[in-house]
Amino acid sequence: MAQQQPTQEESGSFKRIAVVGFGLVGASFAGAVCAAHPDTELLAVDVDERTLAEAVRLGWANAAVKPDDPAFREFVQNGCDLIVLAVPVQVVEGYFESLAAWGYEGIITDTASTKAHVSAIAARVLPHPENYVPGHPMAGSEVNGIEGARADLFKGAHWILCPDAATPAEHFPRLHELVTSLGARVIALPREDHDEAVAVVSHVPHLMASSLMQLACRHADDQQALMRLAAGGFKDSTRIAAGSPELWCGIAFDNRDALADGLAEVQDIIGSFAAALNAGDRGRMTALLAEAAEARRALPAAWVPSTERLLEVRIPMEDRPGVVAEVTTITSSVGCNIQSIEIDHITSDSAVLSLVLTDEGDIGQLSAQLINAGFSVSFSPLTAKEHTHVA
C-alpha cells in the first residue's frame, strides 16, 4: 500500500502560536521562532503594557495583548495550534481554565522548571490533558524580563520534553522539530523524574551560589575589599545568584521535596570534606577532590556533533499508546541525541518511527535497551546529504 502523505499537523510546522508570558524565556522563544520561521503568526500575551509594546517593536510578535483582551480568545479559537505558557507556576491554572472554557484542542507546552505540580493541574483542569506536553528549556540569564531576552538564547541549550503514554504520537515529533530548529537539543524525560533531575543540576546549584554570596557578604569589610578580590572564579560560580529572588523562591517551593533532598545530600558531601580536614586525612581529601575533578573533566566542552556521521534508526510502531515517549526516553537515557524524528504512516493502523541520530551516546546500549523493551530495530548509516532528502 502506498505511504500516506502527512497532514499539515503531522508535517511539524506550527502556523499560529500564542506565547503567554513575555519575560526572558517567553520573549526569547518568540524571537527565535520569528527568526527561524518568519511565516509563523505569533501572538504575545502579557500583563505589562510596556512589555507588549516592546514585543511588537522588536518584531517578535504580530500582535500583543493582555490576558483579558478578547483578541486572545479569538486567536486561540481561530487556528492557533500551539500555546506556550512561559509564566510562573502559580498562575498556570488560570490559563488552563481559560483554554478549557474556550474549547482549545491544540498542543500546549510550558517552560516551567518544575513539572509535577503543573502536570497535576493539567490532568484536573484540561478536558484533553494528553495535549499538554511539559517542556523546560535549560537556558536563562541573570537579566530578567524582555530586557534580557535574546533570539539566540537557546542555541546549544538543552530543552527537556516530557511526553508520556497518553501523548498523541505526532505531538513529540512536532515539538522536537520546532525546538531543534531554534538551535536547542531535546532531551526526553519521564515527567515523574524531571523535578529530581533539575533539582540536582539547576535548583541546588542556584541555592549554593546564593549561599556563597551570603558567606562573602558576612566577611566583607566596610570598604568591600573582599568583594574586589572576587572578580575571578568566585564571580563566575556565583553569577546565577543575581537572578530574581521572587522567581527563585517560587521555584524552590514548587520543587520543595526534591530540592530539600538535594540540599541534604550536599550537606553530607560538604561534611565529608570537613571531616577529612578535621581529621588531617590528606588521602581522603585528595580522593574527594579527584573524584570531582575527574567527573568535571568528563563533561563535554560543547555540543559539537559531527554532521557527517549520522545514523538512522527505524522502529516499526505497534498500535499502542506511549510508543514515541518510550523510545525517545530510552534514547535520551543512553546519551544519544535525536537530530530529527518522523513517523512514516504505512497504513491507517501501522507506522514506522524513524530517528536520525548524531554521533553521540552509546548506540550499543540503545540497541540493547530497545530490543529488551520489545522493539524490532534496524540501524543504517546516513550521510548528511542523504538526510536532506529524508528529513
From TrEMBL:
Keywords: Amino-acid biosynthesis, Aromatic amino acid biosynthesis, NAD, Oxidoreductase, Tyrosine biosynthesis. Belongs to the prephenate/arogenate dehydrogenase family. Residues 15-307 form the Prephenate/arogenate dehydrogenase domain. This is Prephenate dehydrogenase. Gene3D superfamilies: 3.30.70.260, 6-phosphogluconate dehydrogenase C-terminal like domain, NAD(P)-binding Rossmann-like Domain. It comes from Gordonibacter faecis. Residues 312-385 form the ACT domain. It catalyses: prephenate + NAD(+) = 3-(4-hydroxyphenyl)pyruvate + CO2 + NADH. Pathway: Amino-acid biosynthesis; L-tyrosine biosynthesis; (4-hydroxyphenyl)pyruvate from prephenate (NAD(+) route): step 1/1. It is an enzyme of class 1 (oxidoreductase). InterPro entries: 6-PGluconate_DH-like_C_sf, ACT-like_dom_sf, ACT_dom, NAD(P)-bd_dom_sf, PDH_C, PDH_N, Preph/Arog_dehydrog, Prephen_DH. Its EC number is 1.3.1.12. The keyword NAD applies. It comes from the Bacteria.
